[in-house]
Amino acid sequence: MPKKNEKPPEPLNDLKDGEAIEITSTSGRIYKIKNVGGVYSCNCPAWRFQNIPIEQRSCKHIRQFRGEEAEKYRVGNLTVTRITTKKEKSSEEEKEVDDKKWKPKVLLAQKWTEEVDPTGWYMSEKLDGVRAYWDGNELWSRQGNKYYAPDWFLDGLPDFHLDGELFGGRGEFQVTVSIVRRQDYNDLWKDIKYRIFDAPDDKNEFKKRLEILNNWYNLNKVPYAEILKQTICKNRKHLQEELNKVLGLGGEGLIIRQASSKYVHGRSNTLLKVKATHDAEAKVIGYNPGKGKYKGMVGSLQCQMPNGLEFNLSGFPDEMRENPPEIGTIVTYHYQEWTKDGKPRFPAFFRIRKDVKWEDVIKAGTDSLTTDVTKKVKKTKKAKKLKKIKEKEEMGKAKKPKKTTKTPKKTTKKETTGGTETESGKTYYYELTDEKSNKFWQIVVSGNSYTTTYGRIGTDGGSSTKDWKDNAEAIKKAASQRNSKEKKGYILKKVD
Length: 496
Known about the structure:
This protein is an alpha+beta fold. It contains 12 helices and 28 strands. The strands form 7 sheets. Strands 8-7-6-9-10-11 form a 6-stranded mixed β-sheet. The chain has a 5-stranded mixed β-sheet with strand order 4-14-13-5-12. The longest helix is centred in the C-terminal third of the chain and has 27 residues, at 368-394. The relative contact order is 0.09.
C-alpha cells in the first residue's frame, strides 16, 4: 500500500480545477487539455478511445504538459496490474504484486423479494455515495484505490477496520465522486461524511458488531464520521413505510440486514437492498442517431449487459445528446422488469458510473436474474429448434446441408467508391458550414471496424464504432459513408 499522505512529484505545468489549455501537436493539430476534479482529459483520439475509466487515462499531450514523472504517478497509482499465476511467478513474487494492488473484500447486497419476511431485520437507508473501506490507516475503494482524504478528515478513526460510504448528500453522487477521486488532499472533503455501517474484522453477528460500533463512537466523537442509523423492522408494512419515507426525501431505497448475520466476503442473502424500481449496470458500445428535434445529435445509447445481451437506452438530458458518454463508459439504468428475451423493459438512464470497472461488474454478476432469464430464453429457443427438426424428419422433409466452399476475399488497403479513395489508419475530417449548419464529421478505419465522430464545430462531439467482416469491407463501407457526406455538402478539410 502507498505510504500515508505520500506527496506526488511536482508537475512541470499544472491546471487548477476547471481550467483548460490548448496545445499544438507535432502534426500541427490543436488539442484541449482540461482538469475537472483532478481528472485530466484531452480531446485527442488517443485519449478519447481508451477503453478504461477516464481517471486512468493519459496521452502524450498531457505527459508533455505535466511531465512524465507527475503523469506516471497520477495514472500509475490507479492502474490495476495483472497478477500472474503460480506457473508464471513464484509465490514470493505473487505476494509482492498482490500487496501492491491490495483490494478489500467486502460484503455485497442482493435484491430483496416478497418471499423474504423482513421482520426482525435491521433497516437503514441505502446511501447514494461511494463505498469506502477503512484499514486502520487509510480509506480504500473496492478496487483497491486509495482515497486521498486529508488528515483532519481521518482524525479519530479507530485502528480496527470499518466499512461504510463516503456520502455528500442525497442526489449528490456525481459531486461526491468528483471530490473523493481527487489526489490533492483538498478542502472539499468538508462536504463529505463517512457513514459507517459495519466492522468487517469482527467475527460476531451483526447485532453485536453494531453495538461495538456505537460504543466506540459514543466515546470518540469523530467530526467527519458517524454510525449509520439502523432500525429494527416490525413487519412488511413497517418496511414499506420506511421505504416511502426515504424515497420521499429523495433517497435511493433501503438496506436490510439479518440481525444474526456474519460479515462475509461477496454477495450474501443476509444483506438485501429494497428499492421501488430495479436498476443495473451496462456498458456503452455505440450510439443511435436522433430524429426530429434531436436530428444531428444522439437519439439513444447502444448498451451491453454483463451477460452480453444488447439494448438501446434513452432518457438522458438534452445536453448529453450533444456530448454523450464515451464508448466503454459504464452507466446505471432503471427498469421495470425483464422481458422474455432477458432484456430490461422500459430502461431509463440514471447516471454514469465512474467508480466501477466493467470487469468488476461482470465478476460481481450484478443481476443474476438477467443470467437466469437468458438461460431460459436460450433453452426455449433450442427446444423449439429441435422440435421443428424432429417434425421435418418425421414428415421426410429434413434436408442435409449442402457443402459450400467460400473463397476468401482478398483484403486491400484502399477502396475507391464514386471517386473517393479511402485508406486504413487515416482520419478524414469534414465540415458543413452554411446558414443553417456548423457541423463536423470525421471517419477512421482500424482493422475490421470504422469510427465516426460528429457534432457541432468547437465541441468534442459524439462517436460511434461499427464492426464489419474484415478490413476490406470496413474500408468499403467507410468510403460509402464519405461519398454520402460529400453529396450532402460536407467539405473534406483534412486527412491525417
